[in-house]
Design a protein that fits this description.
alpha/beta, Rossmann fold, 4-stranded parallel sheet, two-stranded antiparallel sheet, globular, binds pyridoxal-5'-phosphate
Length: about 190
């Protein structure tokens, strides 16, 4: 058995096929100059990168010793690093001919970044979100809706992030036109 340098994958067969499809396309595009320059174009003109590097003088003095710098990723469009990931994956999804992007969100930040990029490219967007998280994160839910995304409320289990991930994977496996724009390093229970 070969587990590779990252420890391998242990996923159900129907999901494995969809993951392999993404891997194949990514390997094709990762050294594609046109794809890379398209990506960098959006990072610069839409996201606002490169973000500044700020010398945190007070914090440096307080900590005593090292000079501490803060890379201001919070100044990116939508307020975090998440948009970098969302743009890259959306461009990949477009190349794969996918017409519907889905994502999971807990606090709502990855959902907002995904909804923003889908709105930019005019792609149908559904955000899977637990019932409890929807209650806790009303402002981000409202933002996603304003950006044109559909919120898929997840009621199973505790109605939080992990169930949203499971439901998104189930939906991915059942729908060929879907690209799952994952926002984290996640694991799912076995897909039925
Ligand atoms: C932001 C973030 C999350 C959580 O995203 P939310 O949608 O805001 O819950 C998870 N994993 C990573 C790596 C993140 O950066």
């Amino acid at each position: 058995m070969e587990y590779g340098k990252f420890g391998g994958q242990y996923v159900p067969q129907n999901l494995k096929e969809r993951l392999d499809e993404i891997e194949r396309e990514f390997e094709k595009l990762r050294n594609d100059e046109e794809f890379k320059s398209e990506y960098l174009y959006y990072l610069k003109q839409f996201v606002g990168r490169p973000t500044p590097l700020y010398y945190a003088e007070n914090l440096s003095k307080f900590a005593g010793g090292a000079k501490i710098f803060l890379k201001r990723e919070d100044l990116n469009h939508t307020g975090a690093h998440k948009i970098n990931n969302a743009i890259g994956q959306t461009l990949l999804a477009k190349r794969m001919g996918k017409t519907h992007i889905i994502a999971e969100t807990g606090a709502g930040q990855h959902g907002v970044a995904t909804a923003t990029v889908c709105s930019l490219f005019g792609i149908k967007c559904t955000i899977f979100m637990g019932k409890e998280d929807i209650k806790r994160q009303r402002v981000n839910v409202e933002k996603m809706k304003l950006l044109g995304a559909k919120i898929q409320e997840v009621t199973r289990g505790e109605g939080t992030l992990k169930e949203a991930v499971d439901e998104a994977f189930d939906y991915l496996v059942e729908n060929d036109e879907v690209f799952y724009l994952i926002g984290s390093a996640v694991r799912t229970r076995s897909v039925s």
